Amino acid sequence: MRSTKGVTIMSHATISDGFFPIARRDGIFKERVPDAYKSQVNLSEPTVCSQCGAVFNQGHWQWGQAPENAHEAICPACHRIHDHYPAGFLTLKGEFFRAHREEIMRFVRNHEKHQRAEHPLKRIIAVEQKNGTTLVTTTSIHLARGIGELLHHAYQGVLKLHFNAEQKLLRVNWTH
Ligand SMILES: [Zn+2]
Description:
The protein contains five helices and ten strands. It is of the alpha+beta class. The chain has a domain at 7-34 and 85-175. The strands form two sheets. Strands 1-9-10-6-8-7 form a six-stranded mixed beta sheet. It is globular, with a radius of gyration of 17 Å. Zinc ion is lined by residues 49, 51-52, 54, 74-75, 77-78.
């Protein structure tokens, strides 16, 4: 249901232009397209990220020991963190969330820790609080969706996803 009609979105002050509702199992989550932020299409292999030490090899950024002859570059996650340009925007709100915020945020942080340990490009950039709403920004749309699914699975509530196909940005809203 990647609708091209913006009618329902327009009334939604929190959803910016270019975002359309998508299903939780939308095909975009199956695509294994590398993060094109600061387009690193022709990166030589192996390359090591000079910021976090992740190694680009066989088309993926992975944790590991960089060979001595490795090229140096900055990985998309470090670029996004440096530029404060997230790929995922996760908004958490509602009475239940406010009442259990500490526990829920521990859960979120823990999930990120495990994801990041396996995937260098899945990281939380920042957590911001405003009027009882918490915004978690991430370097990966998959991490934002994964956290949303995790919270929905653990606590129920309402989970909504909006995707901006042009800029490949995902907004995840969880209300409970
Ligand atoms: Zn890096």
